[in-house]
Target: TF-B3 domain-containing protein
Amino acid sequence: MNVHLGLKWLRGMYGSFVCRVSSGRSRDLSNRVYASDEARAEALEKAENLHASLETHYPSFVKSMLISHVTGGFWLGLPKSFCKMNLPKRDEVMTLIDEEGNEHPTIYLPRKTGLSGGWKGFAVDHNLADGDALIFQLIRPTAFKVYITRAKVNI
Model:
């Protein structure tokens, strides 16, 4: 797929998610669930243990989810050093592949070192929450295998 056509297609596909302008209404934040420090640390430890067991010839990193990653703006910043060493230098469609093999296209923006369009769909489809930890393993130049460890949240 031509990168520019792919980005245009992805923006069209996810435009309502990424390009929506705020209507000025306030959001109901009362149903947000925040992970405790202990739950966040436990999920991160599980992710780091899994990360250590993965094949080392694929570059990878662990990312702990914050509320801002999984609600609201749905922007996911990636480690700058990882991006500089391993990811494309131009805007690119990056595919996130979950543990079941389902593929989710996202837009990688190298100038901001993060994932934008399509990230919301992935986060929502996988019910990501504050405190969850994800392992991103670069299995192809434009594809991450993503492993999810969940934070236990007491409600």
